[in-house]
């Protein structure tokens, strides 16, 4: 058989304490069940002694399990033996993503354009915002918009509504597309780490608010953007993707903000695509990204 058979694809990702035979056991499991490997990537982190793997595969014969539940229960036995932390996802199903935004629409606009043209393997479940600014853009795409204002004495209630909308719609990922509110540890725990942010600087420089103003004051020659998982510590979560642009002494703060918008949108779109394709695995405070 030369070319992969048409049909559903599945994505196995796992991490484990590294040892001999993990790859052989995994590919043997697939071979014994007529699993046709479409893409396979692995990485051994010698520092942590952890092993990481992503395999995309498709059914290619009668021995392949009848459904995803059976595939998972079959693999559970192998995973138990090898001590894997694993998931098998339906590679044909778009990831359900809820997007949060404040006033800046450039990252939201870019994500919705890519989604609407089929360039991003996601389903947008809703857009939530603490301002009304992006309602028209969202509803133009025929998507639900939820205005959830925040005040110092209503943060817990507001976050409970964010979490409620997230779970009610079966969302799998919350994307902070320039959402300018610090999430509390409680909400992050309720999201179980399924939250990605775009920060408008080349982290770890210029964490927090107004990074372009602070960068301008120091006369930097490179500005950037960083997409990272959200943790309780502001702008300190595991980094997924970064990019930079060169500027010079002539660049005003407004120039930096204008140049940065494109970089932010592109970095966030790549991070969301990789998350939706199950290409990102956590490695302590870092990530492994099988691009
Ligand atoms: N727990 C976390 N929450 C959020 C993170 C994060 O890393 N951990 N990233 C931010 C986004 N962000 C920068 O990328 C950011 C957002 C907000 C602020 C800030 O100082 N906000 C002020 C209010 C500002 C306003 O109302 O406009 C505040 O919350 O008091 C700094 C950086 C998203 N959330």
UniProtKB/TrEMBL annotation:
It comes from the Bacteria. Its EC number is 3.5.1.10. GO terms for molecular function: formyltetrahydrofolate deformylase activity. InterPro entries: ACT-like_dom_sf, ACT_dom, Formyl-FH4-Hydrolase_C, Formyl_transf_N, Formyl_transf_N_sf, PurU, PurU_ACT. Residues 11-89 form the ACT domain. It catalyses: (6R)-10-formyltetrahydrofolate + H2O = (6S)-5,6,7,8-tetrahydrofolate + formate + H(+). Keywords: Hydrolase, One-carbon metabolism, Purine biosynthesis. Pathway: Purine metabolism; IMP biosynthesis via de novo pathway; formate from 10-formyl-5,6,7,8-tetrahydrofolate: step 1/1. The active site is at residue 235. GO terms for biological process: 'de novo' IMP biosynthetic process; one-carbon metabolic process. It holds the Pfam family Formyl_trans_N. The keyword ATP-binding does not apply. Catalyzes the hydrolysis of 10-formyltetrahydrofolate (formyl-FH4) to formate and tetrahydrofolate (FH4). Belongs to the PurU family. This is Formyltetrahydrofolate deformylase. It comes from Allosphingosinicella deserti.
